[in-house]
Amino acid sequence: MTATRYIPQGRLPAVWQALGIRRPGAVASFEALAPYAEYLLLERGHSPRGVRRYLHDLALWFRFLEARALPPGPEAVRMLLLEERWAPRRVQGFLAALRGYYRYLAQVRGEPAADPTEGIGRPKAGRQLPQLPAPEELRRFLEALAGEKEVRLLSALARFLYGTGLRISEALSLRGRNLVLEAGHPVAVRVVGKGNKERLVPLSKAAQEALKPLGPIQGGAGVFTFSQGRRRGHVPSVRWVEARFREAALRAGLDPRRFTPHKFRHAYATLLVEMGAQLDAVKDLLGHESIATTQIYLHASRERLKEAASRLPDL
After folding, report:
1. What fold, for 135-311?
2. pLDDT tens sequence across 92-115
3. For the chain, does the N or the C end have fewer beta carbons within 10 angstroms?
C-alpha cells in the first residue's frame, strides 16, 4: 500500500470534499480513481455514499490483483469471490462496481479494457423487507433529538424525510429555488435525483409542518443548514446527519439500524402503498427507474398487515 498522505481540507480536491473523504491517499488507488469518482457523481448522478462504496470495492480489487500478481479477468474475479465467501447481495454489489468501472474505461475513456465480470454468474439474493420504525418509536427518536445542539435542523430533516421519501442526498441538496410555493407556503419540491433526472414531489402535511420552523428560504440558500456557530448557513454532510441520527436512536434505546435516513424513505413508501397508492405513482415519487425496485414496498405492506392480523387474540 502506498504511504499515507494527508491533504489539508482547504486544498483538498473538490471531488473528495463532495464524497466526504479527507484522506484519499490513505487508501491505495483512491487518488488514481478521482476521474472515475467525478464521472459517477456528475455524469451518472450517483450519491456520495454509492460512489464511496464503488471506490472501496475497486481498491479491494486492485489490492487483490497486486498481491497475487494476476491480470484483471474472470479467473481473478472467481478466485477473489472464493476467498471472500460473501453473501449474494454483497457479491452483486462487487460485480456491479467492477462492471461499471471497466465499461467506463472502454466506453468513456476509449481504452482497450475488457469487462472481467463477463461470464460470471450473478447470484440471486432474496429481497430483504425493510424493518420500519413504529409510530411510538418515532416519537421516542424525535424526543431524543432534543439532546442535539442542532435540534431544529435534525428534527426538521427527520420529519421531512418521513413525509417525502427523499434520499438524504436529495434533501440536503435542496435550495430555496427548489420549493414550489402557493400563497407563500411550500407545497412541493423539485428534486434532482439519480441520473440527474428531475421530478416533482408534492409535500405531505408532515413535510410542510417540518419546514415551518426553518422560516422562509430564498433562492440559492440551502433548505437544511446549520443554525449556529461557525458552520451557520452551511449544509451538513450526509455522514454528519447519519451519525447524529445514530446517536439519538441509541439514547432512546432504539436499534440505530432502523433509524437511518434511508429507513424514513422506506417508511414513507410503505405507508403510501398501505393507503392504496398505485405502484407506478410511488415509483415516480421515489425516483425509481424500474417498477421492480418499488415492488418491495408492496411485499413489505403485506407482511406488516399479516403481522398485525396475527396478533388478534383467539376467541
Report:
1. hpI Integrase; Chain A (1.10.443)
2. 899 999 999 999 999 999 998 999
3. C
